[in-house]
Amino acid sequence: MDALSPLLARFNLRAGTFFRGPLCQRTDLYGSAEHGHLHLLHQGSLRLQIVGEPEQLVTAPALLLFVRPVAHRLQPLPQTSPQLACATLSFAGGNTHPLASSLPAWLVLQGKQLASLEPLFNLLAREASDPAPGSQAVLDRLFELLVIEWLRRQLEEQRLQVGLLAGLADPRLAQTLAGIHERPGHPWQLEEMAGCAHLSRARFAARFRQVLGCTPGDYLLGWRIGLVQKGLRAGRPLALLAAENGYESASALARAFRRRVGCSPRQWLAENP
To answer: Over 6-46, what HEC string results?
Structure first.
């Protein structure tokens, strides 16, 4: 079962390359509520500084992945000529994206950790070093493919112990998650969710919380509200979004939205156009 594609189809990710070349001076990056950063270091070394974290020496080949906005500083080491390709990384829905919210805020992959990503890494490094017509679009897509391939490896190798990817890697919970993802408007009850996983209600609820870090009801609410936010940005009526996502009326959806997000759909859309 392909558990990753439905997620990426409903909540796609986008990369936007904004720099390629030598890192000549200290650079501070902050991100925003809507995007994080990707840095591909394909030559030389640099120091990575994050507030509250020990300074880290990073040597090529390396991938610095900031899934969520984290203020960080890149400091070139003298005489190492660090060469970088950098991009913004945004998941539709920002920090509410079900994948983004379940991943570490940042991580650094170096050396052997990049083995499974080596073909894409090398292709991206070559494109960054020797650009040709259409290079911007090529780099953007390659960055996106690099992240998707990394997500695929996490899922296949079950490296994350808690969160959505851990749930998708669990053979029983994956069945329930697939049902929720494919049919968000279905009137899901705990008994039916547990039945999809072939577990009793008590065992299912305990296992779900242990693996995903939340209750089944909280996950269902988060998934639905994420779809609603995506729909609001696309200009779709609230009443239609309510019907598609299991709510009897626009007012019922608005109440659930406020419980989850802390404001009304209209206010959220005004602040997140």
So the answer is: HHHHHCCEEEEEEEEEECCCCEEECCCCCCEEEEEEEECEE
